[in-house]
Write a structure and sequence with these properties.
With 263 residues, the chain is of the alpha+beta class. It is built from 5 helices and 4 strands; from the N terminus they run ααββαααββ.
């Protein structure tokens, strides 16, 4: 007799019936319950093992970790060295240049002790200090004018040719767009902040739509080079390292795959 319900557990009536029928019926019920317990135990173990796996303790990719990342435990230990530059480090100290771009001469017109005029006295020497600074940067506007001429012989009109990259009545130049793409794509500065940077640095905010269009233009321009790199990685290199890095895009977790070699 089957004492198990569709849910896998005997009812109180099933237990009483087995008790009345004797020892064999009770043993059959216990064996059925034991098999159920073992089955559930195996399922729980499998689920716990699956939930406990991540990209650090299994072959699962980092993208399977989701938003909740496993806590990183640093393997670094104390080196015993003092903080800062180590002995033998080349450093990056500023050095004076032989030909500065600008020279500001600070005159000595009076003696600092007696107050006598020194305007007619030639200097015996000078003390020099150099300041490295960025020059004032502003956006320059170049206007292209194409001549229009009427031929006195045939009566037709001919207009001069604009450069191939000048296609609109008003547009941004390639250097400005390249810098905007560099800020946004390489330095991971959001569109809104990139626009603010241009306003703060150059006094001219660049619209987010322009930034997106510039990024798409640069992506199309580098597509042939990327195709050559992919061919090199797939067909020539004997060993290739693959990885992926997580980043947030509008609050959602996205993944940036990469492939590289020792070079």
């Amino acid at each position: 007799m089957d004492y198990m319900t569709p849910r896998g557990l005997p009812t109180s009536d099933d237990v009483h019936t087995a008790y009345v029928q004797g020892e064999e019926a009770v043993l059959a019920l216990v064996e059925a319950l034991t098999a159920l317990i073992l089955n559930l135990q195996a399922r729980v173990t499998a689920l716990e093992d699956h939930l406990g796996k991540n990209s650090r303790n299994s072959r699962k990719p980092p993208s399977s970790d989701g938003v909740q990342k496993p806590r990183t435990r640093s393997l670094r230990t104390r080196s015993g060295k003092k903080s800062g530059a180590q002995p033998g480090h080349a450093g990056h100290t500023l050095h004076a240049v032989a030909q500065p771009d600008h020279v500001h001469l600070h005159l000595v017109e009076h003696c600092g002790h007696c107050g006598a005029s020194l305007q007619a006295v030639s200097p015996s020497d000078d003390d020099r200090r150099q300041v490295f600074e960025l020059p004032p940067v502003r956006i320059e506007v170049t206007e292209h004018r194409a001549e229009i001429k009427h031929c006195p012989h045939c009566g037709q009109t001919t207009k001069g040719a604009f450069p191939s990259d000048v296609t609109q009545p008003v547009q941004y130049g390639p250097t400005l767009k390249a810098q905007a793409v560099y800020f946004n794509q390489y330095q991971f500065i959001p569109l809104e902040r990139t626009s603010e940077m241009f306003a703060d640095l150059y006094g001219h905010p660049v619209g987010e739509g322009t930034l997106v269009a510039a990024t798409q233009e640069r992506a199309a321009a580098v597509r042939p080079a990327n195709a050559q790199v992919q061919t090199q990685l797939h067909a020539v290199e004997p060993v290739v390292h693959f990885d992926e890095s997580g980043l947030r895009v509008t609050g959602k977790l996205q993944w940036l795959p990469s492939a590289s070699t020792e070079r």
